[in-house]
């Protein structure tokens, strides 16, 4: 039975020709000058582990603290015969109505397997140099 090992949030993720994971702009907070705000691109990276043949439907949602949807992704079929599998979800043009905590939920066959929290924050004045 596959198990979710971790979830990483970043601006962009990729797997290169050598099967290595690349992450750009990993974050726990994103800053905007004003709200409502639009974040151009976000990647949600998941790592699954298991033994034998594994297959399931994975999907990602992004909600605020009151469980209002910011994003509800399509179900994606995941199949792997190795001990680990990495999945990258690319989310575009996410709209954040106000500064607050948001939560990415990861589901396997409609069962919540893990979550990762992040904050959308109002950017403060830059420090004088």
Q: What labels would you give this structure?
A:
Immunoglobulin-like; 3-stranded antiparallel sheet; mainly beta; 6-stranded mixed sheet; 11 strands; 129 residues; single chain
Per the CATH scheme, the topology name is Immunoglobulin-like
Supply Rg. 16 Å
Low-confidence stretches: none
Largest sheet: 6 strands, mixed
Question: Secondary-structure element order, as H and E?
Answer: EEEEEEEEEEE
Please tell me the CATH architecture by its name. Answer: Sandwich
Beta-strand portion reads over 45%
Distance between the termini: 54 Å
- Counted up, domains total 1
Note the topology.
Elements: E1 3-10, E2 12-15, E3 21-24, E4 29-32, E5 37-49, E6 54-64, E7 69-72, E8 76-80, E9 84-96, E10 100-108, E11 111-122
Parallel strand pairs: 4-11
Antiparallel strand pairs: 1-5, 2-3, 5-9, 6-7, 6-8, 6-10, 10-11
Description:
The protein is an all-beta fold and 129 residues long. 0% of the residues lie in helices and 67% in strands. A hairpin with a 2-residue loop joins β10 (100-108) and β11 (111-122). It is globular, with a radius of gyration of 16 Å. The chain starts with a strand and ends in a 7-residue tail after the last strand. The model has no long low-confidence stretch (mean pLDDT 93).
């Amino acid at each position: 039975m596959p198990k979710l090992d971790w979830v990483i949030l970043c601006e962009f993720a990729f797997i290169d020709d050598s099967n290595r994971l690349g992450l750009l702009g990993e974050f726990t907070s994103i800053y905007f000058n004003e709200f409502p705000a639009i974040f151009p691109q976000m990647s949600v990276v998941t790592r699954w582990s298991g033994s034998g043949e594994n297959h399931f439907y994975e999907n990602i949602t992004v909600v605020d603290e009151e469980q209002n949807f910011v994003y509800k992704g399509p179900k994606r079929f995941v199949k792997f015969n190795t001990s680990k599998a990495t999945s990258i979800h690319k989310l575009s043009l996410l709209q954040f109505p106000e500064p607050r905590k948001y939560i990415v939920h990861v589901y396997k066959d409609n069962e919540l397997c893990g979550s990762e929290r992040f904050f959308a924050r109002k950017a403060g004045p830059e420090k004088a140099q």
